[in-house]
Amino acid sequence: MDRRRTRWFRYLAALWLVWATGAPAEPAQVNTIQDVIARLRTCWRPPEASRAKSGIDITVIVSFNRAGEILGRPRITYESEQADDNDRLMYRIAVMEALQRCTPLPFTEGMAGAIAGRPFAVQFHNRKLPPQPLEKRAWLTPKIL
User: 26-128 has which CATH code?
Assistant: First the structure.
């Protein structure tokens, strides 16, 4: 009887261990356009600040098929004008890498039917803040009397 109990506890412990550390949970299914955009933005990794001289906004038009894969070629339709050609290239590459990291998207059945083949725009933002001027206050200025 004692062996059965020991085996039973071992079985339950192993079952609990498999359940607790089992396969990673599947990502939540995408059910709205806001979910699509939010999911794509989580995959967005802008170029390193040390490599890109300026932060820019960039917009891409992309379409998906029912399986959540990219349909056709994504098109860059807008880039901030203050960036130079090297920065634009780095940001274009970062956008395409974000699309590759995130696809295929796990659409719900209803969303897959609604979004298939329809283009929509996704905006990615990466603005570097300008350096703040040093604040001057009269009471901070040392004065010798």
Answer: 3.30.1150.10
